Amino acid sequence: MGLEAALPVDGFLTTQLRHVINWARRSSLWPMPFATACCGIELMATACSRYDLARFGAEVMRFSPRQADLLIVAGRVAIKTLPVLQRIYQQMPEPKWVISMGACASTGGVFDTYAVVQGCDQFIPVDVYVPGCPPRPEQLIEGIMMIQRHIDQEGLPPPGGKRVPLGLAVAPTHSVRPQPAGLTVGI
Ligand code: SF4
């Protein structure tokens, strides 16, 4: 990575163990995708070559909760699916984080119906909310970077006891244009 070239061959670095642990932890978030709907497609796009989630060390999707420390809820959660989501969360080892991706996961979105959970944060602690329908990959990456910054500052969940979610929200990346937008046909 060029570090060897910048340092003398027999040089050495000193640091604190907690900094190294935090650096390793934030550079290797392993997501557990709970993708139930269209937001899941955007989640897949985040890992593709165009957006390259690997730049942030978070591209290693795990499909076993025991190997994951970042739960990404992408899409609506049906009442019938809720026990599965809760079990997955409980099976993930600490420290762990949760991202609620998109309007449906955070609020139920347009599905204001008895069959859809009106916000997964009613049942599991959510650390970062990513707004949008669907959010763009850049927004999801920003949400992951929020958690990375938190880990950098040693913001680990307190051991034992009740889990306190971070409750952060990614700001929308666009400003709404006046509607109806102007229509241009041809050149
Ligand atoms: S927020 Fe929009 S894009 Fe995401 S799952 Fe709901 S309807 Fe689909």
The major beta sheet can be summarized as: 5 strands, parallel
Structural class: alpha/beta
What is Rg? 19 Å
pLDDT below 50 for ≥5 consecutive residues: which ranges?
none
CATH T-level fold name: Rossmann fold
Number of domains: 1
| Discrete helix count | 6
Identify the overall geometry. globular
List each distinct ligand once: iron/sulfur cluster
CATH class: Alpha Beta
Strand segment count: 5
Rounded mean pLDDT is: 88
Helix content: 25-40%
CATH architecture designation: 3-Layer(aba) Sandwich
Task: Spell out the helices and strands N to C.
Answer: HHEHEHEHEHE
Strand content: 5-15%
> Termini separation (Å)?
48 Å
Summarize the SSE layout with pairings:
Blueprint lengths: L2 H4 L10 H10 L4 E5 L2 H9 L23 E5 L7 H10 L5 E5 H6 L20 E3 L6 H16 L15 E2 L18
Parallel strand pairs: 1-2, 2-3, 3-4, 4-5
Would you give an account of this structure?
The structure is a single chain. With 187 residues, this protein is of the alpha/beta class. It has one domain: Rossmann fold. It is 29% helix and 11% strand. The chain has a five-stranded parallel beta sheet with strand order 1-2-3-4-5. α3 (38-46) links the parallel β1 and β2. α2 (17-26) packs antiparallel against α6 and α3 packs across α6. The mean pLDDT is 88. It binds iron/sulfur cluster.
